[in-house]
Design goal:
This protein is an alpha/beta fold. Helices cover 32% and strands 23% of the residues. The strands form four sheets. Strands 6, 7, 8, 9, 10, 11, 12, 13, 14, 15, 16 and 17 form a twelve-stranded mixed beta sheet that branches. Strands 24, 25, 26, 27, 28, 29, 30, 31 and 32 form a nine-stranded mixed beta sheet that branches. Strands 18-21-20-19-22-23 form a six-stranded mixed beta sheet, with helices on both faces. Helix 21 links the parallel strand 31 and strand 32. Helix 15 (547-570) crosses helix 16 and helix 15 runs parallel beside helix 17. The radius of gyration is 28 Å and the shape is globular. The two termini are 53 Å apart. It binds zinc ion (2 copies) and fe (iii) ion. One zinc ion binds next to helix 3. Fe (iii) ion (FE) binds next to helix 13 and strand 24.
């Protein structure tokens, strides 16, 4: 065709959003265009990949685009527009508009791919049984990157110089390891080594793996270095070993996550839905919380569920040849960040682990395993951090510091929010330092100066003083407003809506403890329409750790002397303490007012004798809700509750419920039925509260950590839908405090304009 002749032809413009940069997406698009004889261009841009196509077979191209994308791509959205433009003579990859931008994408860590696994198991392959086998579509990324752009010399692989064979693969554009930055082999790459916890060197390479297997089989506890940190491992089928780990970690009841050898093995003890199967086998390879077929008392005391992951590093695969199930719990000493370097492993794990299986590829950024339960994130970390979340507004300049518990931070860049790694509870200097390090790193990577800092309004949160130190405009955000907007924003909704926010504790605008809220609003503003009536939490923090105290507080508050008698009856060995609690409630001594879902569940759990003292965060409420895992809803009669409008705000009062529960106990009603009736009460009360409101919306957003209670979530959603409401739920950020920073950021953006 004559190049000078200007001719316009039908052109398809496509914008693809999601994780499509730094994952081999443009070469894939170019190959696809060639396959379907299409001309045009592909280009990375700030908000996604732009594709321009001319030719006949655009429909086939679009079908393949979704179905055959490289493993690490995650396509969230495809926008297609037909127009006309000057004709192209060929298809080409063109530079991004923003110079150098495409190189600033931070890729996520991925489970070993099937191709690499196959090579690892092939005795004729030069990487046979090599535990660091990797390619462009798998292996560590975020956890080993020191700075951007992502090139080997700026990763923790920099100190390993490639051997000629690896170099050849790395530079051959037709090789599947072309520019695979962590490329390595036995000759040139990292090695594993096996040690006693006292730092006695025992073995290297294959011998180290074999020795690890032997010791695990003998019941030992081994600290194993992975992608984002160390795990503590033991044979999950050896109850004695599991018990020893519990004693040494001082973790009597908290469930342990396990690694199962295969999907088939997983199915032998747990139910796996198609969605859960997809997650377990995905490149993100999170821990998935599954319903158990029969209880695993040693691994998950009093629970009907367990967190399971499949092997996700080559090393895991080599070890799991000899085990059906290993405990793989992240190695951290209570109150400290996860152990991720050798120095900490050999000191902090002394007295916990017997041996250490380590390797000489440093972990730059520690990162926990992600945990997903029934499609909701309990923890968003490895495999997902630092993937950006697309939002409808420009959030440049905003950083949100998150909550005190289950902390994550969030950073804005253009139309994307980057949620940082799971930091944990901000309760020690070490954790604060870890928070600061990771925040500084991601800010630096993004080249952003954030001038607006969002924090929780709680005056006692560590994030408050941090914000002051950082300098900039500090925007305080109410805890439940942040939960609410996190849910709205991830559904790309900013219209005025209702929100039902159920969680443990959050600082309320009136200085009381909130956590059972019916709100109305959006990012710009919110109002409180209703809540659970306050009761005193005698002893404050102590009543959170020991929920039986909270139950007693409630009983005495509601029924005075009669309540005290009920408390004696339920907790006969605690008479003296009950008298003290009664005194505190009557005299209003250290008895802050609270109306929270988590604490109500705690109190009922203690009252029923399921859990009087929580040995881990939320244990009492979790144990109570777990009783419903295999329960078929029969729409039990709810207990009585009342609703009163006080100064324009609805208050749910469950005073009479306590006497009815007592009556059920005394007439020999089963615990399961009582718990079902209790859930029914909560569901009915919430629906009733929402129906009393007269705002111009039929939309309800559900957020807060209590929505990890699947029975409550599922049936409340159903009940609201039956009452004619549209229900919005979380999908990409945790409903718990782990997702709080996302909501804070969206609110601060709106407020500072
Ligand atoms: Zn691979
Ligand atoms: Zn090599
Ligand atoms: Fe919360």
């Amino acid at each position: 065709m004559d190049q000078r002749q200007i001719r316009t032809v039908t052109t398809t413009k496509i914008i693809v959003r999601g994780r499509v940069q730094g994952v081999g997406f443009r070469p894939f698009v170019a190959n696809l265009a060639k396959k379907y004889e299409l001309n045009g261009t592909v280009q990375n841009n700030l908000d996604g990949v732009y594709i321009v196509l001319q030719g006949e077979k655009v429909a086939s191209f679009l079908a393949d685009l979704q179905q055959k994308a490289p493993r690490l791509c995650r396509i969230d959205e495809v926008e297609v527009e037909t127009t006309t433009s000057a004709s192209f003579a060929s298809f080409s990859i063109i530079p991004s508009e923003e110079h150098g931008f495409s190189r600033l994408v931070i890729p996520v860590d991925a489970a070993v791919c099937p191709d690499c696994l196959q090579e690892m198991n092939d005795p004729t392959n030069r990487r046979y049984r090599y535990p660091f086998i990797t390619c462009t579509q798998c292996g560590p990324r975020y956890t080993m990157i020191q700075s951007l752009p992502y090139d080997r010399e700026r990763t923790s692989m920099a100190t390993f110089s490639m051997c000629p064979n690896c170099e050849q693969e790395y530079t051959d554009s037709t090789n599947r390891r072309y520019h695979a930055e962590p490329i390595a082999c036995e000759t040139c790459g990292p090695v594993v080594s096996f040690w006693t916890i006292e730092k006695g060197h025992l073995a290297d390479g294959e011998a180290a793996i074999q020795e690890t297997i032997r010791q695990l089989q003998a019941g030992a506890i081994v600290a194993i270095k992975g992608i984002g940190g160390y795990h503590l491992a033991c044979d999950a089928t050896n109850e004695e070993a599991v018990y020893r780990l519990r004693v040494r970690k001082r973790r009597p009841n908290k469930p342990f996550a396990v690694m199962a050898a295969s999907l088939a093995e997983t199915r032998s003890f747990a139910y796996v839905s198609p969605e859960e199967e997809a997650l377990l086998t995905s490149s993100e390879a999170p821990i998935v919380v599954l319903d158990l077929k029969q209880p695993f008392h040693a691994l998950a005391p009093q629970l009907q569920t367990i967190g399971v992951m499949l092997p996700y590093t080559p090393l895991h695969h080599l070890m799991m040849e000899k085990f059906s199930l290993l405990v793989m719990t992240s190695a951290n000493v209570s109150g400290l960040p996860m152990v991720y370097d050798e120095q900490a492993a050999f000191t902090q794990l002394l007295g916990i682990a017997d041996f250490v299986l380590t390797h000489n590829r440093p972990i730059v950024h520690p990162l926990d395993d992600s945990v997903v339960k029934k499609g909701l994130f309990l923890r968003r970390a490895r495999g997902y951090v630092p993937d950006g979340l697309m939002v409808d507004v420009d959030v440049n300049q905003v950083v949100a510091l998150g909550s005190q518990q289950k902390n994550t931070f969030a950073l804005g860049r253009n139309n994307q929010v980057f949620l940082g790694p799971h930091i944990g509870d901000l309760q020690s200097q070490e954790v604060m330092d870890h928070f600061q390090n990771e925040l500084d790193h991601i800010r630096h990577w993004m080249g952003m100066d954030h001038s607006i800092i969002a924090v929780d309004a709680h005056p006692g949160f560590a994030t408050q003083s941090l914000a002051t130190q950082m300098g900039g405009e500090v925007v305080e955000v109410q805890h439940h407003h942040a939960h609410f907007v996190a849910c709205l924003a991830e559904n790309n909704v900013d219209t005025l809506s209702y929100g039902i926010i159920l969680d443990g504790t959050g600082y309320g605008l009136d200085g009381n403890i909130w956590g059972f809220e019916c709100v109305y609003g959006n990012a710009a503003h919110f109002e409180r329409l209703g809540h659970l009536a306050y009761t005193p939490l005698a002893g404050g923090e102590k009543a959170i750790v020991e929920p039986w105290r909270n139950a007693v507080s409630m009983l005495v508050f509601f029924f005075g002397e009669e309540g005290k008698q009920m408390a004696y009856e339920r907790f006969p060995e605690k008479r003296a303490a009950i008298d003290i609690i009664a005194h505190m409630v009557e005299k209003n001594l250290n008895a802050p007012l609270a109306g929270t879902c988590g604490r109500l569940f705690d109190a009922v759990s203690a009252f029923l004798g399921l859990c009087e003292v929580s040995t881990y965060d939320g244990e009492a409420a979790i144990v109570l809700s777990e009783q419903m895992v295999h329960y078929e809803r029969k729409k039990e009669r709810p207990y009585s509750f009342s609703m009163e409008r006080v100064a324009g705000v609805d208050e749910i009062n469950v005073k009479s419920m306590w006497k009815e529960i007592m009556a059920d106990i005394n007439t020999g009603q089963t615990t399961t039925t009582i718990i079902a009736r209790f859930h029914e009460t909560i569901i009915q009360a919430i629906v009733c509260m929402v129906k009393r409101q007269t705002k111009q919306t039929k939309q309800v957003a559900l957020s807060g950590g209590s929505f990890h209670n699947e029975y409550l979530r599922k049936h409340l959603k159903e009940a609201l839908q039956q009452a004619g409401y549209d229900v919005l739920e979380h999908k990409q950020v945790p409903p718990s405090d782990g997702g709080l920073s996302f909501g804070q950021l969206m609110i601060a953006k709106g407020r500072s304009v």
